[in-house]
């Protein structure tokens, strides 16, 4: 076990290992017995740290949602043009995912296994987050920064389709760091929305 994991509380260690298991095996196929085996403990002692498999999924999903929201709130406070806000929102989103790619993959792919009312609450948080990006785009259209001919929903869903695949292909050991990756993605995504070309 690495020093970083060893310094976490036992419950945090369980959640971190569970994220690896859910990512590799899928939430539905993973069992508490699998998790206990991965941690090298008896299944009975695992239940002293965590009540259920879904408790772990809830923790992963809602903690990540809070991180995304916090990042966007910082961007929304900035007194900058909408294109700069959108750019900073994209970079912030990438940096939150890059902090824990395993948890990010679970957040993106396994949230559908949440039971009610947690699934509804999670989806409402996600819709709110997406709509706040849409508001930034609408602000840019109003100020003439972004093309008014672009469908707002298409713009935002294209943006998130691009961002949310990152846990699947990004290699944290690659030569490109999250900040540089965020810059490159922001260049591609934001420049395509701008009303006037910056080339020349």
Automatic annotation (TrEMBL):
HTH tetR-type domain mapped to chain residues: 8-68
Ranges of the DNA-binding region feature: 31-50
InterPro entries to which the protein is assigned, alphabetical: Homeodomain-like_sf (IPR009057), HTH-type_TetR-like_transc_reg (IPR050109), HTH_TetR (IPR001647), KstR2_TetR_C (IPR041490), Tet_transcr_reg_TetR-rel_C_sf (IPR036271)
Record keywords: DNA-binding, Repressor, Transcription, Transcription regulation
SUPFAM superfamilies per UniProt: Homeodomain-like, Tetracyclin repressor-like, C-terminal domain
Name of the protein in question: Transcriptional regulator, TetR family
Organism: Chryseolinea serpens
Pfam families given in the database record: TetR_C_24, TetR_N
PANTHER family linked: HTH-TYPE TRANSCRIPTIONAL REGULATOR RUTR (PTHR30055), HTH-TYPE TRANSCRIPTIONAL REPRESSOR KSTR2 (PTHR30055:SF175)
Keyword Transmembrane: no
GO MF annotation list: DNA-binding transcription factor activity; transcription cis-regulatory region binding
Keyword Cytoplasm: no
